[in-house]
Design brief:
By secondary structure, the chain is of the alpha+beta class. It has three domains: about 80 residues, no CATH class; about 180 residues, no CATH class; about 80 residues. Helix content is about 65%, strand content about 10%. It is found in: Cell membrane. It is a multi-pass membrane protein. Keywords: Cell membrane, Membrane, Transmembrane, Transmembrane helix. InterPro entries: Bact_polysacc_biosynth/exp, LPS_length_determ_N.
Length: about 350
């Protein structure tokens, strides 16, 4: 039994080698056709390299300096908390790590960037209009009544957009966020963020990269310092209110004193309004002094809570350009054409043998 198994294995191996030789012989017999297919594929690869537009990449890097903790302001913040005010403290980790990079790819930030104004060909347009021009969408919209009048003016009110405008912006967002936009940190220990924007239009890549960084920076700073700014506004309103009350009390004291000028010392009851206004003046003066001190503390806290975004490198023309080279087109075009040509010949021979 063992010898028969060995013989069967030898037969199977011989058959396999024989089949392989048969296929190799068949393919060698068709070498002219395969060679022609490879040459044709290489020619198509060269043609593709000539037609394919270069891709420009704009790169911007910036560093975040976000002072955390309250430090020496702990006592002052505790005092403010005792009178019902929240002067902030730590802004929280809402934009820490991956959250910040995802903010750059959010639809809100990308759409705000697309509606930013730029000067292109001597005209002030939005980046969305520039994107439409780059992709030649408007030519395809000429015969469509719903699309031929669609426009995206710079700094337009996003809330008033139609459903069609929302859909177009959605398509732009999907394409940009998935194929053109890359955001990340080279090292998690270093708070330097890099933004890469790729486009077939050099100016669009540069403008979009710079405006995206600006929009995200504005949103980041506004959000991180929102509580401290709100508290400072409340304190300033209270200061204005107490100041008005104090001015009124001072005027009231003056009026009461005028009314009691040369008053008989025996008629002290008529001096009561003046005494009451004096109490109001003293009370409002004390409150105003405390509020002014809290306003100064709020200003210090606001400066502390406002992060610093420092641009390190901006995209500078000419941008880095990546082309699909002729050599690459010849090699890849010839390889894939030859590979699929051989597959086609093998399938053709199998089908003929079956028929």
């Amino acid at each position: 039994m063992g010898n028969m198994a060995i013989e069967n294995d030898e037969i199977s191996l011989k058959e396999l080698i024989g089949k392989a030789k048969e296929w190799i012989k068949y393919l060698l017999s068709r070498w002219k056709l395969i060679f022609f297919i490879v040459i044709l594929g290489s020619a198509l690869g060269v043609l593709y390299s000539l037609i394919k537009k270069p891709v420009y990449t704009a790169t911007l890097s910036f560093a975040l300096e976000d002072e955390k903790g309250t430090g020496g302001l702990g006592g002052a913040i505790g005092l403010a908390s005792s009178i019902g005010l929240d002067l902030g403290g730590n802004g929280g980790g809402m934009f820490a790590g991956a959250n910040l990079t995802e903010l750059f790819k959010s639809r809100s930030m990308v759409e705000k960037t697309l509606l930013s104004p730029v000067v292109f060909n001597g005209k002030r347009i939005s980046l969305a209009e520039m994107y439409i021009q780059n992709t030649n969408w408007r030519k395809n919209w000429m015969d469509d009544d719903k699309l031929n009048k669609i426009e995206f003016p710079p700094e337009a009110n996003r809330d008033k957009f139609t459903r069609v405008q929302d859909s177009i912006l959605g398509v732009m967002f999907m394409r940009l966020s998935t194929t053109s936009l890359a955001v990340g940190q080279k090292d998690k220990k270093i708070s330097i963020v890099n933004i890469d924007v790729s486009s077939g239009n050099e100016l669009f890549a540069k403008y979009f990269c710079e405006n995206l960084a600006r929009k995200v920076g504005e949103f980041y700073i506004e959000t991180k310092s929102k509580r401290a700014r709100m508290n400072m506004v409340i304190l300033e309103r209270q200061v204005d209110s107490i100041r008005r009350e104090l001015n009124g009390a001072i005027t009231g004291v003056a009026i009461a004193n005028d009314n009691t000028f040369n008053l008989n010392p025996a008629l002290n009851v008529r001096r009561t309004p003046s005494a009451k206004r004096q109490v109001d003046v003293q009370a409002n003066t004390a409150i105003l002094a405390e509020l002014l001190r809290q306003v100064e503390l709020a200003k210090v806290t606001l400066r502390k809570e406002t992060p610093l975004i420092q641009i390190i490198d901006k995209p500078i023309l000419p941008l880095t350009k990546e082309r699909f080279g002729k050599g690459k087109g010849i090699i890849l075009g010839g390889f894939f054409a030859g590979f699929f040509g051989i597959i086609f010949l093998i399938i053709q021979k199998i089908l003929r043998s079956i028929v």
